[in-house]
């Protein structure tokens, strides 16, 4: 290994203003659970009052400021089919819990870049917190985590701050943030960036480097200068190939599997609230021999495929080509007082799921999760899940009036917690309520369940009888919706036609839907839709854009059913009424998904639901 960049010195920690708690200035009621308790539906009281909005920090204007973005500009709302990264056909169903449901006791902090090491422990570096300790707050804390979500998680703090990494930029303006961790050959590597904590806080990341631990996190060898500068490749997270990177050779062969693979972003770790730097829309890939991770001269950057589709590499960072380019902006038309237009490429994680032979990139906007899959580290990447937590208030784990609900940031899928068949996983993500995080927020090592079902073509079958409700009996039935305002996804098929959910998400959305996907195809000819609340500003489908419609999913394409007949007539206004049931019959068809869809009515642009039966 070339030691030119490494030394073992630990310069004294620079004094700085305490600004880190303002990482995500997102106001709301909060949500996170400290046990593995299920999301328990709670009755909602129908109300005619206006819906509460949650301020969000992102500006509505285009990026600009210190640096010239160049290249493509992010695009506003577009039809998903127009984006090249849409159209995943790998998973039949995909589900993520609507809130964090398990927090490691005694943990404090966010980010939690993690890896599964050779000694069977998970090592994780949190930002802005105490880690697994009651000691003072630090900008970086390295921790060792034992156990599993099923058996219980315990942790211990190992190292902190200057013991782990340097601050390369002005320490009165920037501090350290962990972005990625990997274990290869029993050695831990931790990527740490400079992230601005002075105003505009958390809005640019000019430098990054990688520290090494040969003794499982107790001591760290730092580089003598930053490995990456000028806002280029300064948000780094590693491909997770399981315990001690043991699945790399299985996935890539003995030669290519001998490398450590690192994903990187330019400019910032997420969209820049202030426009200080361009919002990232590209994800890049590099690799380095596993015994030379700190040797910057040994790094190679992906430069695209050759004529045979094989990856090509260059040691020139200027030649790098994105493996994923996604210019989409979520929430392009937020309600007054809210920010939107959020880019979807952010600091997350990439997991190689050996059982499914798939790479999974978990990204986010904070109010949404954006999950992609690919057959190889360099793609092609396709989005398979968009989960919308909305710009409305979120709810903490100790909120007795609401079901817990929250989005989050820094999303990773720790490889140790993946089931043997690859279908059940745990997502780590964080959020918090200003001015100070509390245990009831997700400001800790915090997990929620993810369930994936790979697609396989199946011949459509009839339900067991005309009274059999596929919404309750279908294979791997999974709820889908534009947004679940109160996270009460269980209401759609619980047999109770009184409890209500609605889709208000703080945006002026022009499409809304409620439905299910299945892991096999069924014959379908009727839906029974029971409305939820009706408020003065919404709750119904409007008559525009074809009115209330039914679609089935056939080979991943959503198609309108033929000869739709609604009984009684659906009025397409508030007269649709609360808790009224409408029978939607159509020419018998088939699909492995079904939904009602249309333009939401009312000034607040939302619909409601109490029950949706499928027959």
Characterization of this structure:
There is one protein chain. The chain has helices spanning 248-256, 470-473, and strands at 6-7, 91-96, 102-103, 107-116, 122-132, 138-148, 152-160, 174-184, 187-196, 208-213, 222-223, 235-240, 259-265, 282-289, 300-305, 311-314, 324-325, 329-330, 342-343, 349-353, 358-364, 368-374, 382-388, 409-412, 424-430, 446-454, 478-481, 501-502, 512-530, 549-554, 557-560, 565-567, 581-598, 608-609, 611-614. By secondary structure, it is an all-beta fold. Strands 12, 13, 14, 15, 16, 17, 20, 21, 22 and 23 form a 10-stranded mixed beta sheet that branches. Strands 27, 29, 30, 31, 32, 33 and 35 form a 7-stranded antiparallel beta sheet that branches. β5 (122-132) and β6 form a beta hairpin. It is globular.
